[in-house]
Amino acid sequence: MQSFQKKFQEYRWDSIHERIYNVGHADVRRSLHKTKKTMDDFLVLLSPTASQSLEEMAYMAQRLTQKRFGKTIQLFAPLYLSNECQNICTYCGFSMDNQLKRKTLSSIEIMQEAGALKAMGVNHVLLVSGEANKTVGLDYFLKAIKLLRPHFANISIEVQPLSQEEYYAVHQAGVNAVLVYQETYHEEVYKQYHPKGKKSNFAFRLDTPDRVGQAGLHKIGLGVLLGLEDWRVDSFFNALHIDYLQKTYWQTKYSVSFPRLRPAEGIIEPNFIMEDRDLLQLICAYRIWNPDLEISISTRENEKFRNHIISLGATTMSAASKTNPGGYVVDPQSLEQFETSDERSMDEIRNVIYQVGYEPIMKDWDNYW
Ligand code: SF4
Fold this sequence. Notes:
40% of the residues lie in helices and 12% in strands. By secondary structure, the chain is of the alpha/beta class. It has an eight-stranded parallel barrel with strand order 1-2-3-4-5-6-7-8, surrounded by four helices.
């Protein structure tokens, strides 16, 4: 099977770290003004030295985003199907060792939650679950997708890594996109954060986007959990992964998300703090490096940051999100994955987008079947 592993093994964490922290001002000037940007330029734009050119980077990111995507923001909301999980991840509220009551939505409950999202005007939905193959496996997903397909223009999933055949099956059932985050590309550190369960297999997770690409999905979303390791180095590897996928599965679209570690029941504190200014630099670096990339901002981020990022590189935003199964109407008190920061309603977010001079998009995609 085609795999990112080979490319990944050509790079060493420590040497990438050293290169990022030794970038000079002349390197930044050169990378900013090159017509076609490479991975080396992305590395330069991530550096502490480049942060001194943040204003110029923000201007370039704004211009490139408007040129490629217009003044639009695509809106979506998550629908959490289950918080059951067979993994221990030390940063997640759903971790198996978190001794709290679990919930998996029944078919009726899925439709009740879907009704609440439709009432808010949601047309693009992201189905999320913990990783519990026995109760929330392929059959469960296919049933949920069949129920939801007639009601939503676009369905994405963020669930446990599946096999290529399973990705093909969910795609045939109507899933357009798969989001799968490596969390961190530091292999030793990855093992510490994922001590138990299938997710502790670093290589299997690393190969997951390849299986999605081979199954022919329309879009793949990647990201790292910002706060586990040095965000600059982790983001270099995440971009390297996207670069490889774009060249290998060139008919697929790509998106990047920026989950910053948020509080949740029973979880660890971040090891590395990422300030708002750092996140802005990272978003601008991605945009300048890759003008086609969708850039997705979740409700983990605070209102002020989200208001600003609308015009500085974002293309997609979640809104009014509940991160627990049944969170909209069925069981608002169930265990949540993490606390959201921006709790404004869908209408409030739409109004903010209009106020910035952008257009909120609830549906830009439809299926013919
Ligand atoms: S991050 Fe995913 S796999 Fe890990 S505990 Fe949370 S839901 Fe389970």
